[in-house]
Design goal:
The protein has 464 residues and is an alpha/beta fold. The protein has helices at 4-11, 59-75, 86-93, 124-128, 162-175, 188-197, 207-215, 219-246, 252-268, 340-359, 366-379, 457-460, and strands spanning 2-3, 80-83, 105-109, 116-120, 134-138, 179-182, 202-205, 284-291, 313-322, 325-328, 331-335, 391-395, 398-404, 417-418, 424-426, 431-433, 439-440, 447-448, 461-463. The protein folds into two domains: 2-51 and 219-463, Creatinase/methionine aminopeptidase superfamily (Creatine Amidinohydrolase); 77-205, Creatine Amidinohydrolase, Chain A, domain 1 (3-Layer(aba) Sandwich). Helix 8 (219-246) crosses helix 9 (252-268). The longest helix has 28 residues, at 219-246.
Length: 464
């Protein structure tokens, strides 16, 4: 346990109060906690891969991934795939984009390394400047057939059926009577319309192919994810020092905003970018903090703007990603003093997390891990504090199947990744503890990508 006095003595830091908006230093950091002692507590884990030197997965990686996808489509006798959902588009083509009500899709043939786009006009420059064999666009949603103001055509009319519009484009490329895979299961209405537009084509849901490829991470993905987690671990060390330095002068809101500013400055100084599309993509630096009663619930629904108080449980959480790779890293703290029931809960939470890491080996059914951890939690007297499964799969979209849950029969595969959340919550007592990290499935046991010792009392118990 590090006390506030010991921290200030070790670091020699000058207290700045709780002002988040102070002017940046020459290192681009607006706070004084850079010289604190928490960084020395970060763990060196030999299983960590070398962090990537690239900021995003290169186009060649996406094209190689498409070739693997094409092999699987060919095995099913399919002639191509129509990808209509955001995360499969990003994963397979590498085109980061924003999804709204505007339909955005692409078609990839099985026997040609090509991508054909059907997209809204506001993404025209994004598509043109990335991997695009051919592309068709509509001006905006809902479009009229002849309405293209950007071409000097201000023409009104009935809205275009965009399912028909895209499928007719696929038909013009020779696939009107072919076997077409679908990256996502369509609604009943959409499927009816598809069969009306291309009655001689056949459609098959291949979302299982798409997700099975995505849930087992490649070495490049793990390397880029490791880089994100190295940054995230530094952010947590800085934030821990910031809490120790400023103590009860803080609110959880100020902790969150200070950590966001520090983390953004830390990461963005290393990102190569020129303001043009396709650089600095897939970056997510979203740090959360809540103190007190809000930690007693897995998903509290209130806004967090609460004073830090002695005796609070406090959580610093969030997601950090580079090029879509990375994930969750949470630190559940206790501001001293610790009541005996809370301390027992924390110990069971920490041991359940260690069990998840140890049990995460290839071939083990996910439900077996959940069963073992929940049984341990019950043996520890935690029945009334259980509100959630052990973990979710981790991918570009955040939560990804499969899950470490009692109903999940899927066997784990090496290099699947999961959150780490055997969390426990006491609404009556007003406290709770939920860790997270990126657990990577190994041949004999799992390993985590974070370097924070967030399952040790030395790290977690703060005296301010």
């Amino acid at each position: 346990m590090t006390t506030r006095r010991e921290f200030l003595k070790q670091s020699g830091a000058v207290t700045l109060g709780a002002t988040v908006g102070a002017a940046c230093t020459s290192e681009g950091n607006s706070q004084s906690s850079q010289t604190g002692g928490s960084a020395a507590m970060l763990l060196s884990r030999p299983e960590h891969p070398e962090p990537a030197t690239f900021d995003r997965l290169p186009l060649e990686w996406h094209q190689d991934t498409v070739r693997r996808l094409q092999d699987k489509l060919g095995e099913r006798g399919l002639d191509g795939i129509w990808i209509t959902d955001r995360w499969n588009i990003i994963y397979y083509t590498g085109l980061f984009h924003t999804t709204t009500e505007r339909p955005f899709s692409c078609f990839i043939p099985t026997n040609e390394l090509a991508v054909y786009w059907y997209h809204p006009g506001l993404d025209l420059e994004m598509v043109r400047s990335w991997w695009s064999t051919e592309a068709e666009y509509y001006f905006d949603y809902p479009p009229s057939e002849e309405g293209y103001p950007d071409q000097g055509k201000v023409v009104t009319g009935p809205p275009v059926d965009l399912i028909e519009w895209a499928l007719k484009g696929i038909e013009r490329r020779g696939f009107g009577e072919k076997k077409i895979g679908l990256s996502a299961s369509p609604t009943v209405g959409a499927f009816k319309r598809m069969t009306e537009v291309l009655p001689k084509a056949s459609f098959e849901d291949v979302s299982d192919i798409c997700i099975k490829m995505r849930r087992v991470k490649t070495p490049e993905e793990l390397a880029l994810s490791q880089r994100a987690f190295n940054y995230f671990s530094q952010i947590h060390a800085w934030t821990r020092d910031y809490i120790l330095e400023h103590g009860t002068d803080l609110t959880d809101f100020k902790i969150r905003m200070a950590a966001m500013e520090y983390g953004t400055d830390l990461i963005m100084k290393d990102i190569k970018r020129d303001g043009r599309p396709h650089s600095a993509v897939g970056i997510n630096i979203n740090i959360g903090c809540r103190t007190g009663t809000g930690n007693a619930f897995p998903h509290p629904n209130q806004y967090h703007h609460n004073k830090v108080k002695r005796g609070d449980s406090l959580q610093v959480s969030g997601v950090v990603k580079l090029g879509g790779c990375g994930g969750e890293l949470y630190c559940p703290y206790q501001i001293a003093p610790w009541n005996p029931d809370g301390e027992k809960m924390w110990e069971v939470m920490a041991e359940g997390s260690r069990m998840q890491i140890e049990l995460s080996r290839a071939g083990r059914p996910a439900q077996d891990i959940a069963k073992a951890i929940h049984e341990y939690q019950l043996e520890g007297g935690m029945q009334k504090y259980l509100y959630q499964r052990v973990a979710h799969g981790a991918g570009m979209e955040g939560h990804q199947e499969p899950y470490i849950s009692l109903g999940e029969t899927t066997p784990l595969e090496e290099n699947m990744t999961f959150s780490m959340e055997p969390g426990l919550f006491d609404p009556e007592g007003g406290y709770g503890y939920n860790p997270s990290d990126n657990v990577v499935v190994g041949k004999e046991r799992g390993w985590v990508q974070g370097s924070v010792p967030n399952l040790t009392k030395e790290w977690a118990l703060l005296e301010i």
